[in-house]
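QA checklist item 7 of 12: single-chain prediction sanity check.
[x] sequence parsed
[x] length recorded as 182
[x] structure emitted
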Amino acid sequence: MEKSNVENGLMAVWNIFIGQQLEGKQVEFSAEFSCQAAPLLSFQEKYFFGLTGSPAEVYHHPQTPWAAEFVGGANFLTAEADKSSILSELGCFQNNMDCQSGSCFQMVRPENLLIQKAELSQYTGTIQCINFIGDREVLTIRLKSGNSLMAYVDSGQNWSISEPVTVYPKQYHLFPCVENPN
């Protein structure tokens, strides 16, 4: 079966990233990637790449920050976790991720951010850029800390540059602070 251009491109990227790691062992990127490659990888290589599982599992529950960004857009925020809660720039949330206590990264996909207009006294950030892409808009939001987030919202909501907004994650994922995801 002939491979698509996308699959060939992924194979090239995969071979560049992992070529030196496997010391000459050949690995092909395919739908059966995790079955073929996982036995060849050390724990560190699996942690770094984290591309085992179905595409939906890798997208919604990535094993590493690298895997999260490899399969789609991702915002990363530094957070502090304990057994019951998570505190990040976006607020305090219930820790339902079974994340260990301590510093971690909160990863939120752009489509999983709820953006609402806010008063200056209650805002999380301000809109810095608006890009129109068909039926949605991509907002770049500057948080009070100076960090930026990317959010996808439906078109036609009349956003404006410098408008104060509140940002709330509808869904998020946590990673321990082992590496800097940015």
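[x] summary fact logged: Residues 3-39 have pLDDT under 50 and may be disordered.
[ ] second reviewer sign-off
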